[in-house]
Each structure stands twice: as structure tokens, then as C-alpha cells.
Amino acid sequence: MTTRSKELPANSRRHASPRREHAAADKRKQRAESDAQHLVRRWRDAVPNDRTAHLVKDSTRALVRALQMRLTEYDVSFGHWTFLRILWVSDGLTQRELSREAGVMEPTTFAALKAMEARGYVVRRQLAGNRRKVHIFLTAQGRALKRRLVPLAEEVNRIAVRGVAAADIVATRRTLLAVLVNLARDELQSLGRILDLADKASRAGRAKVKAQRS
Hints:
Elements: H1 3-6, H2 18-46, H3 52-72, H4 78-89, H5 95-102, H6 106-118, E1 122-127, E2 130-138, H7 140-160, H8 166-213
Antiparallel strand pairs: 1-2
Helix pairs in contact: 3-7, 4-7, 5-6
């Protein structure tokens, strides 16, 4: 058993035999190697000039898988990591605020928080003066996970840019930030057009009703 798994609470450790654990890990490794090789061949040979969105998506999936494998050693899912990471910075957010920060729907947040509460990572509380809003607070156990899990994410980031020149990393971050800004502006413009069309349709409807009554 690894050093990390020894730090787990007794009730969260896996109890499979070492031989079975080794066989399962070996199978996962072979599958991961096959997937990685397929992905690299695809981008280098089959579709080297495919759309940027697809490359970003595949890169994100690879980053998520790399972190997910490490989080498994602590019996933490990637979904729980997403909320923990936000709460480590902004503890006490409402469920709605947490959903917005994580970029997921509230039912998804509710289900994740229910599971996290059962594991002892968070507590949900209503504050005096506003009984309608539910605030999410980390427990001591949830806060303690930061010391163990953040280094895993930092490790994944280091591995991801291994062999990449510092200037290229800076340029990549600058490019991705520009992508975010451009798409945010496009979304605002699209919403503006949708609102304009809805307003025109509403005015036309009112005009039609008025004409029918006159």
C-alpha cells in the first residue's frame, strides 16, 4: 500500500488483496497507455490541424484524468475536488454561489454536497437573518485535505508542461486568456441579439392584439 493510502481514514481504505489491486492497477495502466498513444497519433498524424476547441477539450480531459488517478488514492472524486478547491478559497458560499463558481447546475451541486457532507468534508448551515439561503462550510477534515490534495494538482501541472519552454508556457496562458475574453464578449453579444429579437417579437405580438381589438 502506498504512503498516501496509509494516511487515509480506516473506513475509506480499500480492502482488496494486494494481488488484485496490482492486477487492476496494471490493467488501468495498459488502458491509459493505449488511450494516450491513440490520442497522440490522432493529433500528430490524423488531424494535426483540427479545430482548437477539440485540442483544448482533449488536453483538459487528459489533465482531469491525471489528477483523478491521484485523487483516487485519497478516495476523493474529481467532482468533490472541484468544490473543495473553491471552498478552500471562499468558505461559506451559498449553494447557488458554489454552483456558479463550479459552472454546474444546482441539482448537481446538491448531490455532490450531500455526498461530501456524508464523508465529513462539509457542513450545510443557515445563517441568522436569512433562513432561505444554505451556506456551505468546510469541516476540519475538509480543510485538512488541502495540504494533501493541492500538491497533487501542482504535480499534474508540472508534468503537463514538462519540456516546454517557459516562454511557450507564458504564450499559451496568454492565448487561452484571450480565448476566454473573446468568447465571453461573443456570449454577451449573442445574448443581446436574443433579447432584441424577443423584444421585437413581444412588440409585434402586442401590436397584433391591439389591431385585432380595434
